[in-house]
Specification:
The structure is a single chain. The chain has eight helices and five strands; from the N terminus they run H-E-H-H-H-H-E-E-H-E-E-H-H. It has helices at about 5-35, 55-60, 65-70, 75-85, 90-95, 115-140, 165-190, 195-205; strands at about 40-50, 95-100, 105-115, 150, 155-160. Strand 2 and strand 3 form a beta hairpin. Helix 1 (about 5-35) packs antiparallel against helix 7 (about 165-190) and helix 4 (about 75-85) crosses helix 6. The two termini are about 30 Å apart.
């Protein structure tokens, strides 16, 4: 097919691409708008010790242990009790994710909730448990052997889902691609149907030198 053929197809059926793109974009936008918003609160805990290479390496090695200590049903139950929540520890754990970055001596804790303020409260209380626990453990240690935990900043909640703009754009792209597929399918079905002189020339690869008028 030549460029003129593609342009002819676009002139005839290009509206299908636009229509399906707008239709699926509208559907994705509507679906996103009716979804309940979910917010994610993030809090970072810094683990510090004395400026000694060996002690610092030991603290970094303990990061995963601290992360597992936080990822516990006991910690979840303590959060539920303090905030007076009607939840089970396991369901609350399902809304929590945690990661330990040993290169930075930082533990990142994330909480998802439909209420951003509630998400911040849960993240703050959950992270504070590690801080209090380290303070209790440090009380029986010499100052040079202590491992400290502190919040880098207050928890910050942001919208996690739905991503309305992204969903709408993805819907528009999907609809446009679907329109292209349908157009090529229709053209393939009609490829054996001869309606114009151009169809004869394209199908037989021969020039039309005359035609009988209707």
């Amino acid at each position: 097919m030549q460029l003129n053929d593609y342009l002819r197809i676009l002139r005839r059926r290009g509206w299908l691409i636009i229509f399906l793109g707008l239709l699926t974009a509208g559907a994705a936008f509507g679906f996103s708008r009716i979804q309940q918003p979910v917010y994610q609160s993030t809090v970072k805990i810094l683990i510090t010790t004395r400026p000694d290479f060996g002690q610092t390496q030991t603290a970094k090695a303990l990061l995963r242990d601290y992360a597992e200590w936080l990822r516990s049903s006991y910690r979840a139950a303590a959060v539920i009790d303090e905030l007076d929540m009607d939840r089970t520890p396991q369901s609350l754990l399902g809304d929590m994710s945690i990661a330990a970055a040993s290169s930075e001596s930082i533990i990142t804790l994330e909480i998802k909730h439909s209420d951003p303020d509630r998400a911040n409260d849960i993240a703050r209380v959950w992270a504070t448990q590690l801080i209090h626990w380290r303070q209790e453990e440090n009380a029986g240690l010499r100052k040079e052997d202590r491992v400290n935990a502190e919040l880098l900043d207050n928890p910050i909640a942001g919208l996690d889902s739905p991503q309305t703009k992204i969903n709408t754009l993805a819907g528009a792209i999907f609809g446009a691609l679907l329109g292209v597929v349908i157009i090529f399918l229709l053209e393939w079905i009609e490829s054996g149907v001869i309606r114009r002189n151009e169809d004869i020339e394209r199908y037989l690869d021969l020039p039309v030198i005359g035609s009988i008028p209707q």
